[in-house]
Amino acid sequence: APKIIGLTGGIGSGKTTVARFIEEFGFPVYYSDDRSKTIVNENEELKLKIKELLGEASYDENGLYNRKFVADKVFNNRDLLHQLNEIIHPAVRIDFENWLKGQTKYLVFKETALLFELKLNRQCYKSLLVTAEDNIRIKRVMDRDHKTYREVEAVMEKQMPERDKIKMADCIIYNNTNLEELKEQTEKVIFNIE
Ligand code: ATP
Fold first, then answer.
1. Which residues of 20-42 are buried (b: 16+ CB within 10 A; e: fewer)?
2. Is the CB of 178 under 6 A from ligand 1?
3. Assuming Cys at both sites, which of 92, 93, 105, 111 could form a disulfide with 7, CB separation 3.0 to 4.6 Å?
4. Cβ of 131 below 6 Å from ligand 1
């Protein structure tokens, strides 16, 4: 079976960018956050559970997940957020396991924003953290998502502190400079995993 490397990082750290580089170097990446967005629209059992937890308005008239509604509901309610994760997480884990069965490389990567928060690192061979200084991350997200400094900072404040993630990570990529250096660092790190 392939070794699973958990790839993570806070908002704007560059984890998706690193994931694309990893794919360019020939390794498969499972995008947990992307997949979960598909799963909430496709899995009927999951849909029922979410509506039960957060209300019918969790889905629009076409049966599509109302991300804004759900995000607003759970943003300041840790308990609800936890319950929502308890519904979505097992479905994503099953989806990942099915994906894994089709993999033939010796290393595969699992990108997930909540690797440490959900203790998913325990199911990985190693964890790989992408990090950068707060100011740099905020600026990048402001440019990418057209948000204000304060809006990005508010999201960041809800996430696990960077220093905690740094303590737990097996490998760390510091993304404080340019994309060229990021790609070089990525290459070094992934080919040195043993
Ligand atoms: P989120 O969790 O918010 O989705 P992320 O960790 O996946 O963020 P990316 O989307 O990869 O982060 O990067 C955030 C933004 O910063 C993107 O627009 C990306 O192109 C840009 N970026 C990332 N790293 C660098 C870099 N070293 N130099 C310049 N731009 C960068």
1. ebbeeeebbbbbbeebbeebbee
2. yes
3. 111
4. no
